[in-house]
Task: structure prediction
Amino acid sequence: MSAAPIWKARNLRLFLLAALVSNIGNWMQIFTEQWLTLSLAGGEAARWGGRLAFSSGLATLVFIPLGGWIADHLDRPKAMALAQLWLMALAVSMALLALRGWLGLHGLVFFALASGLGGALAMTLGHSLVADLAGPEQAPAAMGLMGAQFNLSRILGPTVAALLFPVFGAAGNFALNALTFLPLVWVSRHLSVRSSRVESGETRTYREGWAVLRTHTGLRTIVLLGAVAGLFAWGYFALLPVYGAHQLGLGERGVAGLLSAFGIGAVLGGLRVARDRKGGDPLRRIIRAFGLFGVGLILLGALPHRFLAPVVFAAMGFVQATFVSTMSGMVMAWSPPALRGRLNAIYLIAIIGITPLGNLAAGEIAQALGPSGARWVLGGQGCILVVAALLAFAAWRREPAVHPPA
Result:
């Protein structure tokens, strides 16, 4: 499958470019929040980092089902524009409070919770819109491109934030983030997509989505692996400032460099998925990349080294983009159009929605284990992912075939 025909689709191209700008601002805000938390929390940075990630993820968990329902019942482009305006208003509020010196740890937690609401809606709507613009057959490649732009923003956002933070402070970074939502608002308002919304008078529930999962081997495996990732794979991000500062002796630019290394690998992984013409069972590729990500976490925990860490992060970014983009694309490709929003919401709850539980536990455990707690938590999470990959591979060997939903 070639990415070229997809990239030539004008609406998809405009949407992805606008999303790139918005995501750059989002990563600027996330990095600024993390570094501000590190400076305000002092010796309790690991605990407050976990709380910040927990708050954002909790809102995502609660509102992803609403986002799936909206994606199947309302006008998707207009709903996306409204979600972006909500996030823009929050960024402006944070900038004003930070400018006056009124944004403390509890305020950061509150805004993380409120931003999680907008992020949950934007995430479910964005996935459904990309599938609308690309079509089910090209959904995996389109999701690869979407992952590539997201991870390119992972490189640019923290880098820009780290460069501007000493000059303009947190308020400046939050204000700049507010401006980055405007292109996606404009593009969303002018998108024209084929509607697969539920017709008036027709009732569809999440029960139908669960029924599809029970009968579809591929979707069921993806959701289960997504749940393991949601609990144990993303803790590295909440612990990264503490890991970089305490284990590697890095400042804000060094930590941003680790995120950039991860992002470079993830961009390459997303582009590889977008251009992948190989056949075969996508579940095998997902499982293999999933296990390799666990190996990367084990290496970070066992061998904390400021020169080795960027290499490991880059490799982890590559394999993460491989399994996440492939999983997201197959959910879009295998889902019936009328249930796409809700099946996508179930998948997102698994891979992202339950993340706050894992992040909160990771932060508390790392705090309890002392100065080296972050590396022990990362290594332990990596072991869990490797075991899950081995179990999934054994199940795949027993039942390798996947089939489309009825």
Observations:
- Residues 198-203 have pLDDT under 50 and may be disordered.
- The domain at 4-197+207-398 is CATH 1.20.1250.20 (Growth Hormone; Chain: A;).
- DSSP finds 16 helices and no strands in the chain.
- The two ends are 24 Å apart (CA to CA).
